[in-house]
Design a protein that fits this description.
With about 290 residues, the chain is an alpha/beta fold. The chain has 9 helices and 11 strands. It has 3 domains: about 90 residues, Spore Coat Polysaccharide Biosynthesis Protein SpsA, Chain A, CATH 3.90.550; about 130 residues, no CATH class; about 55 residues. α1 links the parallel β1 and β2. InterPro entries: Glyco_trans_2-like, Nucleotide-diphossugar_trans. It holds the Pfam family Glycos_transf_2.
């Protein structure tokens, strides 16, 4: 796996990032194949020190440009270093080196797959599935969902490779360099949420590459709390996806206005503001569908 880069994006998550790096190194993954990007967080000095201690690649961003921006920095550096395969990992994801190797071998063996991911289960309940691949519903304003979500994996009968999906969850996503060559990198305008969805949609719409989840390969995440920050970007970016890919914008705006009224009744003013700002920024921001970044 000398041509594989593992990319971990850090933003105020030093403990998780440190744990993940130690886990990889304890399983003898080459340190110089690990790229850690700090998105100008308060952990910057700790991350810099970690890089010296562990001899991993450290990239310090001068600003927080979001998920796509940070990962794109590392992807560019890894390509310069001669890497051909890339695994994007959230700091709170657990995945074994054996399962990383399985995904890597899948991409090398199945030359029709451009992006692949593992089955994702919960760290606190390892039999419960979080995702066997992402789903998007354009008639519902590209509302997102996950295949087999919340199911007990012991009761699920599924194909080894699930191709009937719309995107790979960005918390654990492996791809080949040819994807960058053909459709460019992830769109940094999204900042966070839906950027991997748009990237997978761009791939499926404009190329012959397939995306797949290997359901025999597992990673584990932690469910996170959602707040106003999350709701703003989910609202705005869903509307953006609708504008770019002919989704039902009215569905999103009606749903979000309904949630705004509900938030106001409960005096959750910051939440209501997030919905309203997300709607207006989603509708009126100038957008460009980027097929290939220059």
């Amino acid at each position: 796996m000398n041509d594989l880069a593992i990319i971990i994006l850090n933003y105020n998550s030093f403990d998780d990032t440190n744990r993940e790096i130690n886990s990889l190194l304890n399983e003898n993954f080459p340190e110089k194949a690990i790229y850690v990007v700090d998105n100008n967080s308060k952990d910057k000095e700790l991350i810099k020190e970690l890089g010296c201690q562990k001899n991993v690649n450290i990239i310090l961003s001068d600003h927080n440009g979001g998920y796509a921006y940070g990962n794109n920095l590392a992807i560019k550096k890894a390509i310069e270093d001669g890497k051909n395969y890339f695994l994007l990992l959230n700091p709170d994801i657990e995945i074994s080196v054996d399962n990383i190797k399985r995904l890597y071998d899948n991409l090398r063996e199945f030359t029709n797959i451009g992006i692949i991911g593992p089955r994702i289960c919960y760290r606190n309940d390892r039999n419960k599935i979080f995702s066997d691949g992402g789903l998007l519903f354009p008639e519902q304003g590209f509302m997102g969902g996950h295949t087999n979500s919340e199911e007990d994996k012991r009761n699920v009968i599924t194909q080894h490779f699930n191709y009937n999906i719309n995107y790979i969850d960005g918390s654990a996503l492996m791809f080949r360099k040819e994807i960058i060559d053909e459709i460019g990198s992830m769109n940094e305008d999204f900042f966070m949420y839906y950027e991997e969805s748009e990237w997978c949609m761009r791939l499926l719409k404009n190329t012959k590459w397939k995306i797949a989840v290997n359901t025999k390969c597992e990673a584990y995440n932690i469910a996170s709390n959602k707040g106003s920050f999350y709701e703003y970007y989910m609202t705005r970016n869903r509307i953006w996806i609708c504008r770019l890919y002919n989704g039902n914008i009215n569905y999103v705006t009606k749903e979000r206005w309904r949630l705004t009224r509900k938030a106001l009744k409960k005096l959750k003013l910051s939440l209501a503001k997030a919905y309203i700002k997300g709607i207006f920024d989603g509708l009126y921001t100038k957008l460009e569908l980027k097929i290939k970044h220059e």
